[in-house]
Amino acid sequence: MKITPIIGIEVHVELKTNSKMFCGCPADHFGKDPNTQTCPVCLGLPGALPVPNEKAIEYCIKIGLALNCKINSQSKFDRKQYFYPDLSKGYQISQYDEPFCTDGYIVLDSGKRVGIERVHMEEDTGKLQHLILEGKKVSLIDYNRSGVPLVEIVSRPDISSSIEAKEYLKKIHEIIKAIGVSSADMEKGQMRLEPTVNVCLEDEHGSHYTPLVEIKNINSFNFASAAIDFEVTRQTEEFKKTGVEKSATNKTTRGYDSIKKITFLQRTKEEAKDYRYFPEPDIPPYIIENELIDKLKSELPELPDQVIVKLIEKGIESKYAKILYANPESLAVINKFNGDSEIEIPKLANLIANKKIDIAGDVKGEYLKATKIGNTNIDELEGVIEKIITDNPGIVAEYRKGKINVAGFFIGQAMKETKGQADPRTLNQVVIRLLNK
Amino acid sequence: MKQLHELGIKEIHDGYLNKSFTCVDLVKHFQNRIDKYNQKLNIYLALNDNALKEAETIDKEISENGISKPLLGIPFAVKDNFLTEGIETTASSNILKGFMPQYESTVTQKIKEAGAIILGKTNMDSFAHGSSTETSDFGPTVNPWNIEKLPGGSSGGSAAAISAQLATVALGSETAGSIRQPSAWCGVTGFKPTYGRVSRYGVIAMASSTDSPGPICKSVEDCAIVTSIIAGRDNKDATTCPSPVEKYYESLYSPDLRGLRIGIVKEYLLPEMRDDVKNIILAAADKLRLLGATVEEISLLDPHYSIGVYTVIQRSEVSSNLARFDSIRFGHDRNFFCEETKRRIMLGTYTLSAGYYDAFYKKAQLVRTKIVNEFKETFNTYDAIIGAVSPGPAQSIGVSKKQPMYGEMEDILLEPSSIAGLTSIGLPCGYVDGLPIGLQITGHQLKESTVLKIADCYQRNTNFQLFPDLEKIL
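Predict the joint structure of the above. Result:
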């Protein structure tokens, strides 16, 4: 039986704007005393009205642009209605059928495209804390997070393994950080992951699809990967036992227990909500002008893939290019010595990626030391080559007549003399220089 | 000589300047009247304990700087859905009983900054759900013209406060008729500015896409003065309009209405309307002709369509707007919603539910666009349209209880202009059975000046600014 996982992922990203999505309260809520960053709007007091944060909308569009999305000229906010104690208004302001960005994609290293269905703007909820106070079980609500701008990135179900899922997520993470719209700190909950997983099982009778499972609120790439693997196995076994296939009514929601490394049932479709979306009457619809899109495009920095491609074009191996990209200090060193005649960038990259050079120290000195031939320095190498030249005047004459490939003879001899320790490229340069003298 | 409660804004300011009376005199005078009549009329739900103190400060200000602010020392009655810091605000619902607002609505903030004194908060239909003030959890307000009659609603307390002269000016809010209809039934002047002209920030939402705060006054002139203050772009309300606010009173005092084209809507003279009411409206049309306007009969979509559109959209928005009263933060649980509110939440929840959204909400929005476009076309030719405010005079207490669609039927002539976001005024134009009848004058969006000009000219040339004699009635 052939087993193919089908995975789509929703990613929530908290934006690092100064203020919240619909009011003037500070958006940076991490570690603040409970309910110290609230106002009538984010508390959902009667009569309070939302006024959209234009910066957040620009950030959302930037994410869309970085993910190759189409930016819709017309867009609007909608109310998504459900009851939960941390939801102050009884609805979340989100976007339903006219999000800011649609139809984007990300290219994995294999060349496979993962489609992005939409990138939309919404607001975060408050936070519940279940505590025991003076011997009593209590649930407390902190509204500091209520109304913090959130962007939701929804992929198409194009991902077919936990490895691809992880690569997709890492790419999203890098892009978000590169464009500077969010710190995307997973531990602070600034990026939250919700994979939806099911499995296609093929046997001689045809294809069977297991029921959809949405895994809620994961905060690490490894957990996401582990949760997906767990689900693929669980769903496959479940199908073998019950034969239940995906239907319009049997989607379930599960949580992930990172300690037990299992997923657990949270909600079945019967309990699923009808969100009763309708256009938010407190916020007029948006017309996104081309000028704004052009302005935001021009503000985008080089994206991770573009930077990596440029490194590869310099001759750096792709695995090293990625390591360097992940560390801005290393990347800065590469850029600093780019064009230095004494330094070969691919070699420097190799040394940095393998941690053979302390990038905080004397990089050039260390580089030269590390690249010299055995115990021989350039002067010694020149001596060796000059001796071979002197010993073989006939071959030198051939070279000088224009038979330049005889240079290989001198390189081979010199390599032999240095017991293969010489750096071929340096050796090559020195031989050519001396032959042309 | 007029008594203090009979004075309009300009007359009060003249009195202050002539030192005929002080602000403390005026506030005390109103407080005495409130003491005397409020129990029977049930107009005020909460009173401002600081009113006299504020009046003292204002008297000092006047003695030092004269009338430096446009509403200085003007006593206001404020509908109980405007949040007022330090004064209990309930929207006449038990669920909010005891709610002390933590912030001030933009409109009340503006009138305060302009020097006004809030006397107290007025009764209304609970959460503005109704056209009778009978759905209030704190008992109905009665009509000062006849205590067996309803004042209309939902701003019934505010309209009755002006009719009974328990304040100089009142603030109301209208979702579809809630300013104009009670003004008509109480025989006072109520002005609904264009949707988005006056900020909704701090007004407990009914239907967000049509809620329009506005003044209820003795005269068009006072309405114009107050609207000039409360209108304008508000950074806290994204639906407010950025265009500059006109000085509305500058359009007043026109000697005639020459050059204006006014349509009288054939469909708004409903077949079920009493002849004497119809004749009053036709007489008002004749008066406008006498004043120089061209008045022609025009035809618009049957207003019954608007009832369907309005009912669906309003209930949908209500069901969403009231979701925050989930008993987590405002004290009381949802059992404290009144029957009418529960009915509206249920209907609205239904019309937004999966599978019904397209059939109800979406279709209603399509028809709404059609109505908006029809008005747009009409106002290409006409400066204003007129009709009755409501099909008849004030109805008897208790009538709304048996009819879930009572309010919609009473507001049939007002709902089209509300769902199109137009500006409109209701003002007295005659009497039947000893009860006032209201004329509505409606203009295109942002044509407040035109509407006020016509209404002011009509009011100055007619004699319908009458007030009931409470001593005889109560």
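The CA atoms of residues 58 and 292 of chain A lie 8 Å apart.
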